[in-house]
Every structure is written in C-alpha cells, then in structure tokens.
C-alpha cells in the first residue's frame, strides 16, 4: 500500500553519526522514501515505529473502520514522535532524524545500535510552528528533545523575516554543536547548560520571563517552545495568564515528562481517561485543537497532573 493511501512507509538506515554525548543522527532512505510528502514546517514531526524483539522490521499499519493504524496491541510496535531535522526529496530521498539518547529510551537505544540496512516505519507528519504574519520577533526555546526543530527555525530564518531569538538548555556544552550557525534575521543563541533534560530543574521559564520585557517593547511577537511537558505548561501559563497573549501567539509542545512514572500513576488514580473526554467535547463544540488542549491542561492541573 502506498504512502498516499496508508500514510506510512518503511525506511532504511543509510548512515549514522554521533553528534554529541547525548545526540545521535540517523539518515534514512530506501525505495519508499521518495513517496514521503513533507509539510515544510520547522517543527515537522513524524511517528517512528521500531521493530519488536526478534523482528527485522515493525508491523505495518492496517485499515480498520476507515482508519490506518496499529489496531492490535498484541502486534503493535513501539513508536515515538520525532522531529525531522532535514529532508532531501528526489529519487534518492533522504530524511535526517536527531535522537536524544539516554538509558531506557526505546528510540534512543535503537539509534545507538542502529546499523545501515535496519528498517523502521514512518507515519504521517504533524507540525505546530506557525508565527502570525505580523510578528516582528520570535522567541524559540527548547531542551534537547526540541533541538532539531529549533535548529531548523534558526537555519530557515529569512533575512527579511521576524527577528528570531533562540534559547536552549542542554545537558552538556558539547550538545550545542548540533545547532547551525545563525542565519538570516536570527540573533544568537542563549544557552543554559546543565539544566533540564532530566539532569536538573529546567531554567527556560525564568529565562523567557526575563527576556520578554525587551522583546514585547519591539512590537507583536510569537513564542514557541518544545521540550519537557511541565515546563511547556508553565511557559504557556506565563504567556496566556501573566501576559494575556492569545493562543495564536503561543505554541508550546510537551515532548516528554520529567516525572512520567509518577504522572502515569496519578493519571490512573484520578480517572484520567475521563478527563481526556473534555478535549473531545470541546472539539465537538467547535473549539480548535489548541483551545481544547488548553481546557484539558486545566483539568489536568486541577487533578494534580
């Protein structure tokens, strides 16, 4: 079945590179890769599905009730969301993914051990980065998990576009080598080393709060963040409640949770599945995904999540 129909394709590892102590770059290709249809947005992300033990490739998606997916939990492969660092179209199409590696991570451990010829499955992309047309500045912040998207925001910054200010927190100064030289109308990168990323409390909320007065004085702007989920919530609250910004000027994406095990236990204890229904109810009432997500986040916070 083609990518256009099923929204998935198999990809083969064609190259690997250790970028830093915490980052591994995997370049993917193969005969199906030319069929990939990129969104062309800096934080474009896909779901990568990995083989289960004993498999040479993950199970394919199947069609059920008009939906393509892995519907049988007994055979469903483990999957994780990853930003596309780069995509080169054409007959010899290539997709580059940068992986954060850490003990116990399904995707990171796969990346560390990946060999040329290994096969994974890729499904349809999504994206969130959408600065308003009148933005004169952009504040883009991320931890290691958001670093590939932040790198693309810097790399693709046009000379005649909004001024881009980048903030990043990494576990090791060597991780900063994964960022490109500033281009176009991008300013330098403010880096916090040794914070967040599972090694220490995150620092980006405070750094953003300190930078905002200077930026807001320049005119209308846009704030984008990707990284740890609790920090994502705090940054959104800072912009939405403290500064009263509308949703179209704030985009925060939680890629992972610092306290995932505790959070999952609490989720089960408070009946989290029922809380999730407020999201779908909001969508049914005509609210946008961003509006519904904010309502759900408020319910989570009330429940101690």
From TrEMBL:
Signal peptide: none annotated. It comes from the Bacteria. Pfam families: FAD_binding_9 (PF08021), SIP (PF04954). SUPFAM superfamilies: Riboflavin synthase domain-like. InterPro entries: FAD-bd_FR_type, FNR_nucleotide-bd, Riboflavin_synthase-like_b-brl, SIP_FAD-bd, SIP_fam, SIP_rossman_dom. Gene3D superfamilies: Nucleotide-binding domain of ferredoxin-NADP reductase (FNR) module, Translation factors. Residues 6-132 form the FAD-binding FR-type domain. This is Siderophore-interacting protein. It comes from Kineosporia mesophila.
């Amino acid at each position: 079945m083609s990518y256009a129909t099923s929204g998935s394709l198999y990809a083969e590892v064609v190259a690997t590179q250790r970028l830093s102590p915490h980052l591994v770059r995997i370049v993917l290709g193969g005969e199906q890769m030319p069929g990939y249809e990129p969104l062309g947005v800096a934080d474009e992300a896909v779901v990568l599905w990995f083989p289960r033990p004993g498999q040479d490739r993950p199970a394919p998606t199947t069609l059920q009730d008009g939906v393509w997916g892995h519907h049988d939990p007994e055979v469903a492969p483990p999957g994780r969301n990853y930003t596309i660092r780069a995509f080169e179209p054409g007959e010899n199409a290539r997709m580059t993914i940068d992986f954060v590696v850490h003990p116990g991570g399904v995707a990171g451990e796969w990346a560390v051990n990946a060999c040329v010829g290994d096969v994974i499955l890729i499904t349809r992309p999504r994206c969130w980065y959408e600065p308003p047309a009148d933005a004169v500045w952009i504040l883009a912040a991320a931890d290691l998990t958001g670093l590939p998207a932040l790198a693309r925001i810097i790399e693709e910054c046009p000379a005649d576009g909004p001024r881009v200010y980048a903030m990043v927190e990494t576990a090791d100064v060597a991780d900063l080598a994964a960022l490109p030289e500033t281009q176009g109308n991008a300013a330098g990168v403010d880096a916090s080393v040794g914070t967040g990323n599972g090694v220490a409390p995150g620092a980006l909320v405070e750094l953003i709060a300190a930078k905002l007065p200077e930026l807001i004085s320049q005119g209308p702007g846009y704030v984008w963040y990707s990284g740890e989920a609790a920090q994502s919530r705090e940054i959104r609250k800072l912009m939405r409640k403290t500064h009263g910004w509308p949703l179209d000027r704030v985009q925060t994406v939680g890629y992972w949770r610092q306290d995932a095990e505790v959070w999952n236990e609490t989720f089960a204890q408070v009946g989290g599945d029922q809380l999730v229904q407020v999201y779908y109810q909001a969508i049914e009432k005509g609210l946008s995904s961003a509006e519904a997500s904010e309502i759900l986040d408020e319910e989570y916070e009330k429940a101690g999540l």
